[in-house]
Every structure is written in structure tokens, then in C-alpha cells.
User: Which sequence fits this backbone?
């Protein structure tokens, strides 16, 4: 299951470094490339909670395999696409497959493991979740540079096909495929099974996430026209309406899409805030650094991808070992991680200042970013989910998976916009101006990380 999780996460980022090659090969416009990169994220974000609820109703193992089959088929279609329109459509389908497949991972972890075993499983899950972001850049660079049999960008999609087929065979043997547990033992669960899904809630939530996600994805490309701001405002209103409808449905004894008790769970609000902050920093950092090293410094796709290897490796190591650290440290790991992230991203910006390619301190800063993000993210996610009741697994996993994806999109949109606007104000793009734009973004990223630490401490005291 974690292999499927990793594969799906790679596809969020693997296309970034392949985009220039795709554009030249398919004669795609800038808007086309934006949709190729972002189409996956749009359907993925919009359908995540729907995917979680489908697993809760029909069985998490069965729904996971359906999503994996859809994802694998769409990956093959993407790799064989002959035009940009085909590729965009198949990327949308690929994102839908991920949205059906991925929420089942957390739900099955929580329904299968208990106690310390669950904590360990969630720790590995958290490590895989964020390492996949940086690893996607690395793998994309390697595959594009290899140009296997003259296929150019196509292996970034086709590599999923053999992996997906192996996982489908293995999954049929080891995953539970029985009916969904729903909210076992609760009257709401029985009623949901009898009446079906909360379709009004699904429509409201899907509309809200779509209205927020689409302008975040396309706003920079379109130079933030009026419709993007209107869409964001209406999306926020739709979220308010969704919450009110779900609360009323729960009071009437219905089965809401997200159980209100999950939102009221101790620590869930703090976890949502921290996950949103850390993933915004992660997404923004990866995006603007890619823009600088490829656009400003002229790195190849391979070199640009390998730039993120130190961060990915260190993140994975810390994500797998933090639970073994002294118990007296555990409570302070997330604030310390945000603080270290703030200092490290500043170090990266200063190392590149003046158009320099960095030095030994740059790699220390990369490692610091990996350690900081791991400490801010892994304990937060594990702590929020370890105590959630099994019957609420689908709600909690869908909620946090959606927050994770929205955090990435917000980071890319906000810090990408800041980078381009700063670059435009400095003049023609070159190593020096690009490094100054990068430094501005790193200050903003550091501020966001610092707010994550301080806000978390304030909310925890309350």
C-alpha cells in the first residue's frame, strides 16, 4: 500500500522537470503545460474525501485496488498520448484514480494496526508521504535525462505501469476485500448503509474544493484575473455552507460526509493547521527552487532533480527514527522542526545569493530543510491519527489528505507568484536576479514556518 502511495505522490511532482520536454515534443502552449502539471492535482484534491467515503462504504481494500487499476491504466494512456489535449484528459483521470486509491491507505493502517504498531505504521506513512514530493523531482530528472530508447518524457508516466501491475497482483492476495465497516457499531453507520452516501455533502464539498483549487492552480498562468478571486471567495462560502449542512445533518441523526466529532477531536484543529503550513512550505520550497536552478542557473533536468536528493534522504531518515528519540523531546519536536525549517530555508536563499551556485553550506541547509520538515510533519500527522477511532478512520484520512494536497497547492501558488513578481520587478531573468527573487521567497517561507511554530504552541495551550 505504501508503494502505491509513493507512486501516486511521485506523479504530483514528477512532471515538473519533464514539462519543457513535453512542451517541445507536443507543441503545447503554456496553458496546456499548466494543465498537464496541475490537472492531476485538481481531480486528486476534489475527489479525496469522496474516495475516503467510498472505501468506508464498499471496503477499503477493494476500493484501493479499483483506484490503483484506474491510476495504472491512465498512466499508460498518458505515456502513449499523441497530443496535449489527450494528455490533459488522461492526467485528470490519473488524479481521480489517486483520489480513490490514496485515502484507503490511512484507513487500512488504522483499521489493521493498534497501539505501538499503529504508531510505527503511521511514522513510515508520514515519511513516504513527504519524501515522495522531493523524490518526484529526482526521478523525473533521471528519466528525462536518460531518454530511454528515444522516448523522451514518456517514461515518467510509463514507469507506473509495471509497478502498478505488480501491486495489483500483490494487493489481490494481501488486502482485505470485505464490505466497508462504515461507522461500525454506530447508528449512523447502519443508517448510512441503508440510505447511501451523503450526496448533497459530496456536491457541496466538491464544489468548494474545485472553486478553491482551480484558481490556485491556474491563477499564476492567467495573471490572476478577476474570476480567480471570485472563485476563491465563492469557494470559501461553499465551505461555510458545507460545514453548516453537515452539522444540521448530524443533529438530525443522519450520516454526514465528515463526522463533526472528527473535527472536534482533541488536537485535530492544531494538526490541520500544522499540516497545512508544513506542506505549503514544502510545496513552495520545491517549486521556487526548481524555477531558480533551471531558469536562473541553467541546470539540466537531471541536475535539477538531484538537487532535492539531500532533502528527501534526510526527511526519510528522520521520519523513520524520530519515535526513538527521548520521550522528553517528543512534545517539542514539531515546533523545533518549524524553527529549523525557517533557519534552513534562509540558509538556502543566502547560499545562492548573487547568482552563486552555493557550496558546502548549501548541502547543510538542504539537510536542515529535510530534518525540519520531517519533525514538523511526521509527529503532527502521527499524533493526530494514532488516537482516532477506527470507525472515524475514513473521515480523518480524507480530511488530512485533502489538507495535505491543498497545502501543496497553496504553497506553489503563493510562493510561485511571489517569485515571478519579484523576478519581473528586477528585470530580465538571469542568475543574479533569479537569486534575489529566490531569497525573497525564502524569507517568506521562513516567516510561514515561524508562524507554524508559534501558532501551534498557542493553540496547544488553549
Assistant:
Amino acid at each position: 500500500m505504501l508503494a502505491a502511495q509513493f507512486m501516486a505522490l511521485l506523479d504530483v511532482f514528477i512532471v515538473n522537470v519533464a514539462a519543457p520536454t513535453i512542451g517541445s515534443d507536443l507543441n503545447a502552449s503554456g496553458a496546456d503545460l499548466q494543465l498537464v502539471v496541475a490537472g492531476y492535482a485538481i481531480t486528486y484534491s476534489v475527489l479525496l474525501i469522496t474516495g475516503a467515503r467510498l472505501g468506508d462504504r464498499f471496503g477499503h481494500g477493494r476500493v484501493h485496488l479499483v483506484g490503483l487499476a484506474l491510476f495504472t491504466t491512465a498512466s499508460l494512456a498518458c505515456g502513449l498520448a499523441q497530443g496535449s489535449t489527450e494528455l490533459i484528459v488522461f492526467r485528470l483521470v490519473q488524479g481521480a484514480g489517486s483520489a480513490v486509491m490514496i485515502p484507503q491507505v490511512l484507513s487500512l493502517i488504522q483499521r489493521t494496526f493498534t497501539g505501538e504498531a499503529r504508531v510505527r505504521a503511521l511514522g513510515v506513512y508520514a515519511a513516504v508521504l513527504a519524501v515522495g514530493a522531493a523524490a518526484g523531482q529526482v526521478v523525473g530528472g533521471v528519466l528525462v535525462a536518460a531518454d530511454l530508447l528515444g522516448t523522451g518524457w514518456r517514461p515518467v508516466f510509463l514507469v507506473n505501469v509495471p509497478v502498478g501491475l505488480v501491486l495489483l497482483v500483490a494487493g489481490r492476495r494481501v488486502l482485505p476485500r470485505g464490505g466497508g465497516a462504515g461507522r461500525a457499531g454506530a447508528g449512523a453507520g447502519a443508517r448510512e448503509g441503508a440510505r447511501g452516501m451523503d450526496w448533497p455533502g459530496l456536491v457541496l464539498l466538491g464544489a468548494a474544493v474545485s472553486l478553491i483549487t482551480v484558481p490556485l492552480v491556474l491563477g499564476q498562468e492567467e495573471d490572476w484575473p478577476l474570476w480567480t478571486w471570485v472563485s476563491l471567495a465563492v469557494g470559501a462560502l461553499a465551505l461555510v455552507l458545507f460545514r453548516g449542512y453537515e452539522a444540521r445533518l448530524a443533529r438530525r441523526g443522519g450520516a454526514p460526509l465528515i463526522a463533526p466529532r472528527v473535527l472536534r477531536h482533541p488536537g485535530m484543529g492544531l494538526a490541520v493547521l500544522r499540516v497545512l503550513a508544513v506542506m505549503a512550505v514544502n510545496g513552495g520550497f520545491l517549486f521556487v527552487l526548481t524555477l531558480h536552478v533551471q531558469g536562473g542557473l541553467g541546470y539540466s533536468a537531471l541536475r535539477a532533480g538531484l538537487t532535492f536528493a539531500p532533502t528527501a534522504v534526510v526527511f526519510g531518515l528522520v521520519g523513520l527514527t524520530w519515535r526513538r528519540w527521548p520521550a522528553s523531546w517528543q512534545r517539542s519536536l514539531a515546533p523545533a522542526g518549524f524553527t529549523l525549517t525557517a533557519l534552513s530555508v534562509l540558509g538556502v536563499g543566502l547560499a545562492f545569493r548573487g547568482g552563486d551556485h552555493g557550496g558546502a553550506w548549501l548541502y547543510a541547509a538542504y539537510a536542515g530543510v529535510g530534518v525540519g520538515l520531517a519533525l514538523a510533519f511526521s509527529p503532527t500527522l502521527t499524533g493526530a491519527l494514532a488516537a482516532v477511532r477506527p470507525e472515524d478512520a475514513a473521515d480523518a484520512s480524507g480530511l488530512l489528505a485533502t489538507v495535505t494536497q491543498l497545502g501543496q497547492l497553496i504553497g506553489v501558488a503563493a510562493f510561485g507568484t511571489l517569485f515571478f513578481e519579484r523576478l519581473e520587478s528586477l528585470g530580465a531573468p538571469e542568475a543574479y536576479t533569479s537569486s534575489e527573487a529566490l531569497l525573497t521567497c525564502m524569507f517568506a517561507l521562513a516567516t510561514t514556518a515561524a508562524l507554524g511554530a508559534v501558532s501551534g504552541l498557542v493553540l496547544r495551550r488553549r
Summary: Residues 183-195 have pLDDT under 50 and may be disordered. The longest helix spans residues 393-426.
